[in-house]
Amino acid sequence: MKTTTSTTTLWGSVQLSMGLCMAVATHAQTPHALQGRIWDTRAQQFITEATLYQRAAAARYVLLGEKHDSEVHHARQLDVLKGMAALGAKPALAMEQLDSEFQAALSQAQAAGQTDAEALADAGQLNRKGWRWPMYKDMMAFAAQRQWPLRAANLSRTDARKIAMGEVVPALPVATAAQQAALEDDVVQGHCGHRPEAARLNGIVAAQRARDARMAQTLDAVGGPVVLIAGAGHVRADRAVPRYLAAPEQALTIAMVETMEGKALPADYDRAGFDVLWFTTGLDRPDPCATPLPGLAAPAKPASTPSSTPKP
Q1: What is the pTM of this model?
Q2: Which of 187, 228, 306, 308 has the most CB atoms lying inside 10 A of its own CB?
């Protein structure tokens, strides 16, 4: 009888453990409430993929913002290209990942009938390591196989560096105080809370604006429908590429947005400058600010105060 009781107790414990494990697994697999949903920021409502593709196919410019290291974002961008193609759209595909100084070689390769993405990346001298190739391969291949023109949209790293260092002053429209402040805040956040000295900060902001202006020039030069693949910060209508377009009112800005725990409503996310938010799963990334940035001292720590003399 003792053995039976012991066995029964053991089996009950096993069942309880299995139940707890299944509960944990179920909880871990529960998708975020916004995952996969598409939010129209102007209409303040969710829309379907079909509706999004229709809007994209009818737009003069389609700007697809991403986090560069997210395979999910690139998959959704490809979905937009496929959706547009299914509706008969034949846009050019412009890419931040390609520097405009290599456009001639890229165009020559396409004119010769080249459709292999690897060969086209070579022609455009895409930095495979810096841009985590082959993350952009499928989009380039999709466009090239349909004979969509590929456009190298970015300012070269050399030119951007000269501007950032103050060696070159680009001719740009005057930024409003709000735009300048927002751009400076972007730089500070990118430097883990460190604010570079004024001249350096102004140079970095000028370089960012020059990159946005170059991408806008590339889109306008197409003379027809065009899709831009770029970081989400570059597609914001409030301070980035759309601001420099000839017809910004004809642009559709779509940001791929990673969901975050505790943020279950579209209103919980930055929506300024975007027409559409497409919510996706997030990535577990190491904290880029866990170690001091090269050339910058760690933020000063507040002086310790003895516990016996607390300050108000």
Answers
A1: 0.84
A2: 228
